[in-house]
DNA sequence: GCTTGCCTTCGAGTAGTCCTAAGGTGGTAA
DNA sequence: TTACCACCTTAGGACTACTCGAAGGCAAGC
């Protein structure tokens, strides 16, 4: 199967701009062109791109991805470095998920608070002020 | 309690550059200055900043955060809009956590694969090629 | 008095994405 | 044949949210 840039963009849920950017920066080395110079993507390219999207969205900079892809093409002797890179990315992603889950708790409190305000004091209750203290239903509390 | 910009940066695990950026862009409206023009952060400022960091790290653009903070200062009649904003952010964050968990699976497969390669064929096994097909232990497979 | 270390402002640099402009190609249809 | 649509191309600029460097102020310690 082969695909146009637009089909690939839809499949991967990213923009055509990003795909061109990755291609122009050497991250999709197997993409071919048709007679009209249009990019033609094969399944192999989709796999590469899927990995690129995965690494980008877990926060790996383009430069590191380029390095990783170069290692893949270099051969089996680069496996130790690739292993370390993926382990680092794994740890990084776990951290990020953890951070997001903590942030989610803060947001949940806000949602609950506003839901309560909307149900209980429908503009008829005493509201002391609108300085930020009025928002302190989830007072920031951290380490120590 | 009051804090220097550096103490706040450490507490929030962000750079002093970012804090100045948020302050310069009106997102920390209660930060005071000492006799030497240095920023002085109180606990109230930490709460605001904590929320800013939370919203930023869950992907809300600075412009939206500015709008949200303006709504907070505007008073109780903006609660419905704030409620909608926080619900949207909640949904967005759940999506992002989900995406990250899927990406993590891909990365886990890579880690496992490389671990296997390192244990079993310690450079003495038959390696067919180093074209990307050699990497296809987690072939990209998606919708349909 | 000099160094160290923190703070300040201002302006420039960066990554990655997004968008516009200007143009080419292929298909359909009046 | 001409018009139009929908897609593709490139080059280059705009944008966001930082990130950093330069140049300088102030206070403490030797």
From TrEMBL, chains A, B:
Q: Which InterPro entries match?
A: DNA-bd_dom_put_sf, MerR-type_HTH_dom, MerR_fam
Q: Which PROSITE patterns match?
A: HTH_MERR_2 (PS50937)
List the Pfam families hit by this protein, alphabetically.
MerR_1 (PF13411)
The opening ranks of the lineage are: Bacteria, Bacillati, Bacillota, Bacilli, Lactobacillales
Any idea what this protein is called? MerR family transcriptional regulator
Q: Does the keyword Ubl conjugation apply?
A: no
Swiss-Prot/TrEMBL keywords: DNA-binding
Q: Where does the HTH merR-type domain lie? A: 1-71
């Amino acid at each position: 199967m082969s695909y146009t840039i637009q089909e690939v963009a839809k499949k991967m849920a990213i923009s055509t701009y990003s795909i061109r950017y990755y291609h122009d920066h050497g991250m999709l080395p197997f993409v071919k062109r048709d007679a009209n110079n249009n990019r033609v993507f094969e399944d192999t390219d989709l796999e590469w791109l899927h990995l690129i999207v995965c690494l980008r969205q877990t926060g790996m900079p383009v430069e590191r991805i380029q390095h990783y892809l170069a290692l893949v093409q270099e051969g089996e002797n680069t496996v130790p470095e690739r292993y370390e890179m993926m382990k680092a990315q794994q740890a990084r992603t776990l951290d990020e998920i953890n951070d997001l889950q903590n942030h989610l708790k803060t947001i949940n409190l806000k949602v609950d608070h506003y839901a309560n305000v909307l149900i209980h004091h429908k503009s008829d209750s005493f509201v002391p002020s609108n300085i930020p203290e009025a928002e302190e239903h989830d007072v920031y509390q951290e380490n120590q």
